Amino acid sequence: SVISASTKTVINDKNADLNATYGVQIAVFTMNTLPGEKSDYDGRVAYLKKVMDTWKLGGDSKNGLIIGLSVSDGDYMAVAGDGLHGAFSGTVIWKRIFRPAHMMPVF
């Protein structure tokens, strides 16, 4: 497993708090390889949006954020649902989630 049981617990607990307080849901999606090449940013974003829609992440208001981890090529990305676009721009996601001090691909 890419994510340890203790990390899953932390993610689930934080997600429950975010959902109860702000109506926001965050999911971590791991896959051996996300579809498309690592350089195919738009294709990978489209795939993660389909996953969000299938899971109904963020509910009807689409207040969801998915973090996709592509294990075999060390790629990772976050995609905000339509309801969060104003709050989670690419710059905000990088500074808050992916900044090297916070998250490095060690999977």
What is the fold's blueprint, element by element?
Elements lengths: L4 H18 L2 E7 L9 H15 L8 E7 L4 E6 L9 H9 L9
Parallel strand pairs: 1-2
Antiparallel strand pairs: 2-3
Structure, explained:
The protein has helices spanning 5-22, 41-55, 90-98; strands at 25-31, 64-70, 75-80. With 107 residues, the chain is an alpha+beta fold. The chain has a three-stranded mixed sheet with strand order 1-2-3. The radius of gyration is 13 Å and the shape is globular. The model has no long low-confidence stretch (mean pLDDT 81).
Which blocks of ≥5 consecutive residues have pLDDT under 50? none
- Tertiary shape: globular
**Overall mean confidence score, pLDDT:** 81
The structural class is: alpha+beta
Strand line-up across the major sheet = 1-2-3
Distance between the termini: 10 Å
Number of helices: 3
Order of helices and strands: HEHEEH
Q: Gyration radius, to the nearest Å?
A: 13 Å
Largest sheet: 3 strands, mixed
Strand content: 15-25%
**Structure summary, number of beta strands:** 3
Q: How helical, in percent, are the residues?
A: 25-40%
